[in-house]
Amino acid sequence: SLAGVDHGAKNRGVPKASVRMLSQADAARVAVVRLKAAHTWRAVPRTARLLSPKDREDRVEKICEVTEDFCLQPQTAGLAVSMFDRVCAKAALGAEINVPLDVVGLVCVLVATKFQELRVPAIEELAKMDLPKGRAPRSRILMKEAEMTVLCLLDWDLHEAAPHQYLEHLFQITGASKSCVKRAEFFVDMSFYEARMLDFSPIAIAAGSLMLAWQQLGDIESENKHTAQLACLCEVDLKTLFLCRHILMDHFESVFKTCEVTVRVPASAPMDDSLRSESPDSIFAPLDAMSVVPRPPGSKVDPDKFFSPLRCPPSLPLAGQSPAGSGPGDKGRR
Question: Using an 8 Å Cβ cutoff, are 212 and 187 in contact?
Answer without folding.
Answer: yes
